[in-house]
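Handout, section B. The chain below has 274 residues.
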Amino acid sequence: MRFIKLSFFLLSIFFLSCNPNNVTIQDSFGKYFTENKVTGSFGIFDNGSGQFDIYNLTRFRDSAYQPASTFKIFNSLVGLKTGIIENENMIIKWDGKYNIFPGGDTATDWNQDLTMTQAFKLSAYPYYKEVARRIGKDTMQQWLDSVSYGNKKISAIDSFWIDNTLKITADEQLGFVKNLYFGKLPFDKRSQDIVKKVMLQEETTLYKLSYKTGWGFMENGKSIGWIVGWIEENKHPYFFVLNVEGDKNADFFTIRKKILKDILTQQGFMQGKK
């Protein structure tokens, strides 16, 4: 069994903050995966009470996958810290090459000049591919090692997070976003604050929902998807990680967000009562 690393910066939420008395196995979450014809895991951590609700503990804790576009969180932090990205409004010009999604559709939103904020929201690979190239392999490796991010492995500098070289567990993802929220990663406050700001996806009078999605393909051709982030109600954060695996042609754009919203609704979120 693969045990979670305990590093100074990326501490495992499960082993650091939880014990058998505050971990609840939520098998009821399984119906949302089944009805969408996917497998996976989900964990949500209440920072105030230390309560951890989790579905499929073994997968959540022990199975590592490519981070796909959730790596844009890390890539943004390194880019901002090193000055490769000046700020969230920095534009990288389109290289003129038309990008195509796996299903064959043109990635219209990617095929233009983009700011960091736009590229993050649109999950634009061309922007972050260029950021990684400008950071360089040696510097990127230094930061992967410093944060102890996943297995810390790099292949090609502009694709290692989507080609199944770099891998990370859901548990490690949760520890990473928790430390980001509280400014405990080894990056300056400005860089962490900017990334937290661009992660905000929904804001109402009842809640704030911040996350980054990811979607890639495993060695066996299956799709692997993520949503990692937090939800705040009454200024109280709850950190979550969703990991889903399914058919290559599954509509992960829809499936990931539907499962997340269904679970959050079941747990009483988005009503301002937490």
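Note. The chain is about 35% helix and 20% strand. Compare this with the example in section A.
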